[in-house]
Amino acid sequence: MAPEFEIAVVGAGIVGLATAHALQDNGEAVCVYERGVPGNAQSGGESRIFRHIHADPRLIALARRARDVWREWESRFGCELLSHDGVVAIGAAVEPRLTLLEADGEVVARRLDPDELAARLPVLSRWEGPAMLDEAGGAIRTRAAIGALSRALSGRLLFDEVLSVRTTPAGTVEVRSAAGTREFARVLVCAGRGTAALARGAGLSLPLRHAAHVRLTYPVRAAPAARLACLLDGSGEFGEAGAYADPLPGNAAYAVGVGEVTAGEDGSVADADGLHAVAERTTAYVRRALPGLEPNPSEARHCWVTELPWSPDGFALWRRDAVLVFAGNHLFKHAPALGRMLAAAAREDDVPASLRPEAQLGAPGRGWLYAPTAAASGSSPREVT
Ligand SMILES: Cc1cc2nc3c(=O)[nH]c(=O)nc-3n(C[C@H](O)[C@H](O)[C@H](O)COP(=O)(O)OP(=O)(O)OC[C@H]3O[C@@H](n4cnc5c(N)ncnc54)[C@H](O)[C@@H]3O)c2cc1C
């Protein structure tokens, strides 16, 4: 008898769900292992920023492809998944990032004068420095996306924790989970915080850095604006080298992040006080930069960041026999396009050159915040979204 499932995906975050959905669309017998609640780990919370603004032109092109699939999913699932409110960036990286977007030629982006900036982002302090608008960027409705994909994959989600993944002498892949052992033709591991450990068991050592991130949500003081852009602040003017903020559905609340605390090899957050300090810094930043918000957080979200050494925006796909392992950071926006690429890689048992670690996707000029001169001098700020 043929096995029930040919391909297994480990992890029902946005990447695993998008990949399994693409595989299902292609008629593959795919299942998804999830040890917790789908979309509740790195993909958790109400919103993420969708931006075309990247330092690596390859990621600008990937974001465009992803945007098309986000819109396609909206028609298919019958709900809004990506707002039309744009992304505002301020700071020294604005000019180099605009240059790259202009070179791409297919992304609508432009400079903003201080009055336009205030109209797009009325919650922000007056800012007279460099500012730009990524017109077709916006806030991703994360819960709606996770919910729609999970429903589309019903019957294929296995609520079970994977302990190990290894290739058998027959060339299949054995997955040992809490509920038992199964074999598959191919397995894709995209388990976020759990990826490095499972990869190690499969014989792959990933250069992932782990950190814990704090993201706080603040009520908007005024009546919700019809349009409210996301914010990328690399200005350093408001006491943080790098900050991001994005509106929650309804625009009555804004989520803000300014930093993270590095975790140890064993997954420990040795500096637990550091998380408290990051939360305090976030509220201090809100007082300075975002006077349109009440500086009392209404919600806190803590989650893991998994980052590759070449860029805060970096990601890659590793392969060992029939085991594929995907890892990186800032994946939510790209997930619809990535899901299709990863599905093709799992079907064809091949890693496209663009996703191989040596391609260092995300690397040129490093993250969106980094102005080239700052990166060269080594004085670049930390990237937070
Ligand atoms: C606060 C914050 C803000 C961010 N902002 C942005 C942004 O603005 N824009 C953007 O594009 N990206 C952003 N990111 C990054 C983005 O959210 C993540 O890159 C993305 O959600 C990762 O998705 P994933 O599917 O790879 O991982 P996850 O969502 O972590 O999914 C992995 C899943 O695997 C499961 N799992 C792990 N181990 C096992 C196991 N052994 N067995 C079974 N299941 C297992 C987990 O339970 C989890 O559900 C942000 C991240 C954070 C934390």
Structure characterization notes:
This protein is of the alpha+beta class. The protein has one domain: FAD/NAD(P)-binding domain (3-Layer(bba) Sandwich). It is 28% helix and 26% strand. The protein contains nine helices and 20 strands. Strands 4, 5, 6, 13, 14, 15, 16, 17 and 18 form a nine-stranded mixed sheet that branches. A six-stranded mixed sheet has the order 8-2-1-12-20-19, sandwiched between helices. Helix 1 packs parallel to helix 5, helix 1 crosses helix 8 and helix 2 crosses helix 8. The longest helix has 21 residues. The chain starts with 6 loop residues before the first strand and ends in an 8-residue tail after the last helix. 53% of the residues are buried. Bound molecules: flavin-adenine dinucleotide (FAD). The site of flavin-adenine dinucleotide has 35 residues, from helix 1, strand 2, strand 3, strand 13 and strand 18.
